[in-house]
Amino acid sequence: MEFRRVSVIIPASNAEKTLEQAIRSAWEQSRPPDEIVVGDDGSTDGTAALAETLGAHVVRLPKGNGAIARNQAVDASTGDLLLFLDADDWWKPTKVEAHLERWSEAEASFVFDTALQVSLQGQAVGPMGAGPDGPVPWEAFLEWTTWTSGSSFSVPRSRYREMGGFREELVSQQDVDFWVRCAAEAGHAERIAAPHTFYRLSPNGVSKRPRDVEANLRVLLSGWPFASDGQKDAFFQLMALTAAGFTPFPDCIQYLRLAGWPVHRPKFWRALARSLRAA
């Protein structure tokens, strides 16, 4: 597939400290985008003004969530290829070029590259979504080892519309939900094995209320009619164990209970060990 215009979509909420690095990394591409559109999610700092100073078009919104900010920014954009970039992440200079090259070579529902995790102290932690070049089926995205950063993928505008964009009723996992739906309904995704994205780790990525995690998962899974009951149950358990691993002991117990206490699974013990290390 070939594209005439490339739009970079950035959702941002009180991101004044990190937004400049994100926007500059997008403009300073070997193939610069045609526009950068920032969906400002009710920021109370200088996020919107900074984005405009750096040449981005800003859509000012009341406080909602990242999915709303992305969808509204897409509505204000004009590109036929959309690349998404979170306000606290950044790209290598060859990111856009690599995605356009892959789109010219392969048929896919969306294209993604490996992300490199970076700690708040600037230390490299490890890759996300690493694997071989080539097609990736939707079932692979049911495992967290396939997940990359929300700043790592591109999708044609037409396909984004077909999928209905991001589901605004979700409070988390909007990226995973989009990837699964897109690959299940429009065909396999395409992985670029070489990393082109830097993902800044955040300490605030997991809800501390299990009822919110459970409610969000119920809503998410209701939008996957193509998945079997067994696949949905396994994903629900995986998400509960993931939340447990990010929650210091003993607060993690609430998520282990939500997962059903699967003590026979290695993932249970890995989640518990991670929680103990965080305590």
Write the layout of secondary structure elements.
Elements: E1 6-12, H1 19-27, E2 35-41, H2 47-53, E3 57-61, H3 66-76, E4 81-84, E5 90-91, H4 95-105, E6 111-118, E7 124-128, E8 134-136, E9 153-156, H5 157-162, H6 174-186, E10 189-200, H7 210-222, H8 229-245, H9 253-259, H10 266-278
Helix pairs in contact: 7-8, 8-9, 8-10
What does this protein look like?
By secondary structure, the protein is of the alpha/beta class. Helix content is 38%, strand content 20%. It has ten helices and ten strands. Strands 1, 2, 3, 4, 5, 6, 7, 8, 9 and 10 form a ten-stranded mixed beta sheet that branches. α8 packs parallel to α10 (266-278). The longest helix is centred in the C-terminal third of the chain and has 17 residues, at 229-245. The radius of gyration is 18 Å and the shape is globular. The mean pLDDT is 95.
Number of helices: 10
Give a short account of the largest sheet: 10 strands, mixed
Radius of gyration: 18 Å
* % residues in beta strands: 15-25%
Low-pLDDT ranges: none
Q: Which structural class do you get from the secondary structure elements? A: alpha/beta
Q: Globular, elongated, flat, extended or rod-shaped: what is the shape?
A: globular
Number of strands: 10
Helix-strand string: EHEHEHEEHEEEEHHEHHHH
**Whole-Å distance between the termini?**
49 Å
| Helix share, percent | 25-40%
Based on the structure, what is the oligomeric state of the protein chains?
single chain
Chain-averaged pLDDT: 95
